[in-house]
Amino acid sequence: MIPTLAWTPEGVRFIDQTKLPLEESFVLAATYEQVAEAIVAMVVRGAPAIGVSAAYGIALGALHTKAATPLEFAPEFDRICARLAATRPTAVNLFWAIDRIKRLFANLLASGATLVQIQQRILAEADAMYNEDIAACKTMGAFGAELLPQEGGVLTHCNAGALATCGYGTALGVIRSAVEQGKRIHVFADETRPFLQGARLTAWELMASNIPTTVICDNTAASLMRQGRIQAVVVGADRIAANGDTANKIGTYNVAILAKEHAIPFYVAAPWSTIDLATATGDSIPIEERSPLEVTHHGGKQLTPNGVGICNPAFDVTPAKYVTAIITERGVLRAPYAESLREMQLVG
């Protein structure tokens, strides 16, 4: 497995995704502040990976506290959670993970647990999230693999692979599972401007797995679809609203419209923790606006005129009507998503 993140006695060890594919190096976050900085700088990225990283960040904060009692630690715990919650606004897995640790902390306080017990339990909960993520990705991979053709081209946008999770992947997990089943899949990876997650990360990890891969410019997909070279699209998600509207990396909406026009199935693969039933529609999903420098500069070189205006949203929202199916570890959901998501919530 690709070592996206790992707990060590010294802190959380991340593969530095800003250096890939040309350099495989690692960053050690020894404090919760350093975990937060790694998330903001996109050293670690991808909704599931961000959520688990935040949980480990809280564990670091708890282990390094100078508080003597649980009650003395409580205000510091709130500050740690708030700092990590402020890192990326769109990926709901981040808030899901922090809320899960908050509930655990509240229950431990109420039960009279010692500070040492609280520290141990928070770390154990983060470890559990890590293991659950890998298991969930493998299960959804098996579900999703059944939807892919026996042979053909599959388009993906951004990176929803091992690097975006704890080691297997959501959209790329579906592709991995299909290949493991013997299906002959050729992946077309959108470069995914401006951060180039597809060109740098998706291509790197698929090549490491010996899965045939071709990188295409973001504006090439329509031409390939018209030529009949793409039989399915599978992408990840950072948040899925109660009606099935899906937030994913900017440019996903474009791909979904193109897939619909060419009668190509458009699949979204995401763990249940990405489902946000408290958000009614995609109109209410907060969209992160990132630094203009990601657009104006590349590789340290300026590409645009001085003073030009820049719009750099990190995500867009694909309306549910363009989504053929949502693949989760609980099963495959079909429209109408307001009903199927609600029913799956009750079953789960």
Fold blueprint:
Elements: E1 5-8, E2 11-15, E3 26-29, H1 32-40, H2 47-63, H3 70-85, H4 92-111, H5 115-145, E4 151-156, H6 171-180, E5 184-190, H7 197-208, E6 213-216, H8 221-226, E7 232-235, E8 239-241, E9 246-249, H9 252-261, E10 266-269, E11 275-276, H10 293-296, E12 297-298, E13 301-302, E14 315-318, E15 325-328, E16 331-333, H11 337-347
Helix pairs in contact: 1-2, 2-3, 2-4, 2-5, 3-4, 4-5, 5-6
Describe the 3D structure:
Helix 1 packs antiparallel against helix 2 (47-63), helix 2 packs parallel to helix 4 (92-111) and helix 4 (92-111) packs antiparallel against helix 5. A seven-stranded mixed beta sheet has the order 6-5-4-7-10-15-16, sandwiched between helices. A four-stranded mixed beta sheet has the order 11-8-9-14, covered by helices on one side. By secondary structure, it is α/β, with parallel strands linked by helices. It is 42% helix and 18% strand. The two termini are 28 Å apart. The longest helix is centred in the middle third of the chain and has 31 residues, at 115-145. It has two domains: 5-138, translation initiation factor eif-2b, domain 1 (Four Helix Bundle (Hemerythrin (Met), subunit A), Up-down Bundle), CATH 1.20.120.420; 142-347, Translation initiation factor eif-2b, domain 2 (Rossmann fold). The mean pLDDT is 97. A hairpin with a 2-residue loop joins strand 15 and strand 16.
Q: Give helix % range.
A: 40-55%
On the 0 to 100 scale, the average pLDDT is: 97
Q: Would you identify the CATH architecture of the largest domain? A: 3-Layer(aba) Sandwich
Number of strands: 16
Radius of gyration: 20 Å
Number of helices: 11
What is the N-to-C succession of helices and strands? EEEHHHHHEHEHEHEEEHEEHEEEEEH
Unreliable spans = none
Classify the secondary structure makeup into a structural class: alpha/beta
How many individual domains?
A: 2
Major sheet, described briefly?
A: 7 strands, mixed
- Per CATH, the superfamily of the largest domain is Translation initiation factor eif-2b, domain 2
**What general form does the structure show?**
globular
CATH class of the largest domain: Alpha Beta
- CATH fold-level topology of the largest domain: Rossmann fold
Strand content: 15-25%
Strand order within the widest beta sheet: 6-5-4-7-10-15-16
What distance lies between the first and last C-alpha atoms, to the nearest angstrom? 28 Å
